[in-house]
Amino acid sequence: MSTEPETETAAPRRADQAAIRQRIETLIRELRAKDLDRLAALYAPDVVSFDVEPPLQHVGLPAKLQNWSNAFAAFRELDYELRDLALEVGDVVAFGHGFGRLSGTLATGLVTSGMWVRATFCFRKVDDVWLIAHDHVSVPFDIRSGRGLTDLEP
């Protein structure tokens, strides 16, 4: 056990990190519930998203929500899982990265285990609330064949 005094910024950083982790847990819960209204509250209005679904970028909250709406339409039931989340928190910006997997029962009835993707979240603190200002999801690919590698696991 350390007896060194806590730095002036350590406690607020821990609180901010806990708040961001809570926001991500809320994101996962609302994805599973397919609740667009509650998801909207987690994102900045000017969010820029680099997702696996075209186009190359989705700009603004309506575009981000449309992207989730497309995913919800594809799944009768869905699950989202995030592993190995690492966070770096500053005063008003923070970022995190880990591995995400969207899986579940498709609208066709097919059950899919999904695939692991690389996920990055960038947060901006607005009025003391951490909002997702940018997210990026990518699929590794084989350079020689140009094919996505969808069977990798963390």
Strand share of the residues? 35-45%
Give the overall shape.
globular
Main pleated-sheet profile: 7 strands, mixed
Return the string of H and E elements.
Answer: HHEEHEEEEE
Oligomer: single chain
Number of strands: 7
Give an overview of the whole structure.
The protein is α+β, with helices and mostly antiparallel strands. About 30% of the residues lie in helices and about 40% in strands. The chain has 3 helices and 7 strands, in the order ααββαβββββ. Strands 1, 2, 3, 4, 5, 6 and 7 form a 7-stranded mixed sheet that branches.
Short overview:
The chain is an alpha+beta fold.
Brief descriptors of the model:
7 strands, 3 helices, about 40% strand, alpha+beta, seven-stranded mixed beta sheet
How are the SSEs ordered, and which strands pair?
Layout: H1 10-33, H2 36-40, E1 43-50, E2 58-59, H3 61-74, E3 75-89, E4 93-106, E5 111-112, E6 116-126, E7 129-138
Parallel strand pairs: 1-7
Antiparallel strand pairs: 1-2, 3-4, 4-5, 4-6, 6-7
